[in-house]
Amino acid sequence: MDFNDTPEEAAFRKEVRAWLEANATRKSDDKQSFRARNDDPNLLEKAKAWQAKKAAAGYARITWPKEYGGRGGTPILQVIYQQEESSYLVPLGFFDIGLGMCIPTMMAYATPEQLTRYVKPALYGEEVWCQLFSEPAAGSDVAGIRTRAERDGNDWVINGQKVWTSGAHYSDYGIIITRTDPSVPKHQGLTMFFLSMKTPGVEVRPIKQMSGGANFNEVFFTNVRIPDSQRLGKVGEGWKAALTTLMNERLAVGLPSGGLDVDELMELARDTELEDGPAIRNQQVRGKLAEWYVQQQGLRFTRYRTLTALSKGQTPGPESSIIKIVAASKMQDMGALAMELMGPAGIMKEEVPNAAGFQAQWIAAAGFRIAGGTDEILRNIVAERVLGLPQDVRVDKDVPFNKLK
Ligand SMILES: Cc1cc2nc3c(=O)[nH]c(=O)nc-3n(C[C@H](O)[C@H](O)[C@H](O)COP(=O)(O)OP(=O)(O)OC[C@H]3O[C@@H](n4cnc5c(N)ncnc54)[C@H](O)[C@@H]3O)c2cc1C
Description:
By secondary structure, this protein is an alpha+beta fold. It contains twelve helices and twelve strands. The longest helix has 29 residues. It is globular and about 75 Å long.
């Protein structure tokens, strides 16, 4: 692959830079404290306004077809936009699940009328979507879910519980995976639906996190009645629909995030005085910085490999799992060292901008190692599907779900 922009890509980058310069604040020009920025009670409203602006300018979903408000552009153009946007201070994070996973699943299974109704409001940030998959006893093994959907005439009645649902408390819609036939093996008895989070019987309970935030929720379903027209895919083929969502999830979490990296940590090490001089001169610190620098370069080229596949119209293979395994641990380890270097200042949220950033990344990294496939699950994928090692033991594969112990 040629890593330089083609003339068209360079022209697009220039256009994006000019637009961002005119419409957003550069991170380097920001004078707000970390806390003021992130604990802003109007963040969702600001994110919706930014999303609407971005969508109107045609940058919200560059790869989507023009008929759905996209540009019909290549994934490379999408990455160029993200690279450029990462230098600016814009409220993000509220629409990734909807636009990255739920709406692509809708595009694969919903009717043209439903797409006309739901895609544009999601793209413009007017309606937020969440992913209702994980349950207390089914996360990595999402095919083991127990939330039931039972047919009643032309409706379905849903009962059960989901957990770790990011953003359910501000979401308008969600896609949900349910068990519609417990008498067949677990992957065969599932069906997917979409529903309004305001449907009677849906109860959202926020979960308080150690960071002080409450981004996740438990969601309870008590006799929630929805019409059959909200089914996505055939009855019993929910696993196939779920794979569409999960493939998009893996791709989304593997893309660059624009957070603090080795360069910022080197800067911190240069500015931090230890007992024996600047931290950048300390052999142990230097060793770690060198290791993370090597990992950073490895990640960069592995991402290029993913982009190469995308640019050729291929779907990136299971080897992309490596990106998240390495990136999440690196993020956690780097955050820990940064906080250690800063001593007591490392735990202060608003005083030192980078300190707050490293602290936030360190807290988020534990979740990043779990969301979208845990380290162990991704290692299994690499072992089985990249290295061709023997499969993990799957004793429940052919057993009817209601006969499982
Ligand atoms: C930041 C974040 C956001 C999330 N957002 C959402 C969301 O919006 N919607 C949603 O539905 N879910 C969401 N989740 C839930 C997420 O999908 C699950 O947490 C994840 O799939 C792991 O499932 P679990 O928590 O049930 O852990 P488990 O699957 O119970 O795993 C527990 C431990 O066992 C290990 N393990 C499990 N199976 C194997 C195996 N076969 N081999 C080796 N080790 C194994 C795991 O690696 C882990 O260490 C989110 C989670 C996080 C952290």
